[in-house]
Amino acid sequence: MRSEQIDLLVGVDHALWIQRVDTRAARRGEQPFALEAPGALLHKRVRYEKTARWYCGTDADVRVPSTIRTWTRPDNGAHYERTYAGVVFPARPFARFLGYFLSEGSINGHQIVLAQNRGPVLAAMADVVRELGLPPYLPVSSHGCVRTQCVAVMAVRTPRTATA
């Protein structure tokens, strides 16, 4: 989706937090924000909420459940299963990490990658990864990025492989 203020490249099942502009309720000022699929918004006028507030009375923890990975060996057809333990992260650093991941992150094989030009923002990304207790790796060559690994976090991104 593309507009003069925002450019989104999202999948068809990625819900967007929007407020419709072209409805009778919007003309009355009663149109609420809602999650909608990108396909339903094609060629529609919408408003994006570009602010966020942290509604949390305490610095709670974010618990990521354990996950089970299964695979079949191609050479002998044997089935294998491995359980990875869940993890607990402090909420505020995890929220900062999630913001970086949603804007500049990707999964590359078994690594979580946060891409950014070298400078203070890249250093802040590495600090957030350290605050989560994960080891950051900053390659000295190539483009600026922070790489780390956490199977439980990657399983949240791909829920079909995650189990509680």
Description:
The chain folds into two domains: 1-53, no CATH class; 61-132, no CATH class. It has five helices and ten strands, in the order E-H-E-H-E-E-E-E-E-H-E-E-H-E-H. The chain has helices spanning 24-27, 38-41, 91-104, 120-131, 151-157, and strands at residues 16-20, 34-36, 46-48, 61-64, 67-72, 79-84, 87-90, 105-108, 111-115, 145-148. The longest helix has 14 residues, at 91-104. The radius of gyration is 20 Å and the shape is extended. Residues 159-164 have low confidence and may be disordered.
- Sketch the major β-sheet: 3 strands, antiparallel
Strand content: 25-35%
What's the number of structural domains? 2
- The best one-word shape is extended
Low-pLDDT ranges: 159-164
In angstroms, what is the radius of gyration? 20 Å
Task: Output the helix-strand order.
Answer: EHEHEEEEEHEEHEH
Helix fraction by DSSP (H/I, runs of at least 4): 25-40%
**What is the average of the pLDDT values?**
81
Strand order of the largest sheet: 2-1-3
Tally of contiguous helical segments: 5
